[in-house]
Write a structure and sequence with these properties.
Layout (H helix, E strand, L loop, with lengths): L4 E6 L8 E6 H4 L5 E3 L1 H10 L3 H9 L3 E4 L5 E7 L2 E9 L4 E9 L6
Length: about 110
Amino acid sequence: MRPNLRITQILVEPNSLPLTIYRDFDIFSSMKPIRYDCHARKWMKDRHVHDDEVRVAIENPDFMEQSVKGRINAFKFLNKRYLRVTFKKELDHVLVITVTIRKKPFKE
């Protein structure tokens, strides 16, 4: 294993298998830092969504769409649930506005 590779394991739900996320700092260092609106932090805590899941959804979404006010929705299927991250690209960071989860797809 390369020395600059860190492995993060997170448990999203009780009795579920851990989600393993491989973080290579050479790849992640080129992305702008992610900041969270207080609304997003509240919903992430209530819905048991980890920061790494949000990062994966933003960096490698299943699909993306434009939203209102210059925002972007990133959709990702992780840990047997569908995740939608609404964010906005700022000059020096990415601002996460809200995070939503579902058991069924957002769009069919």
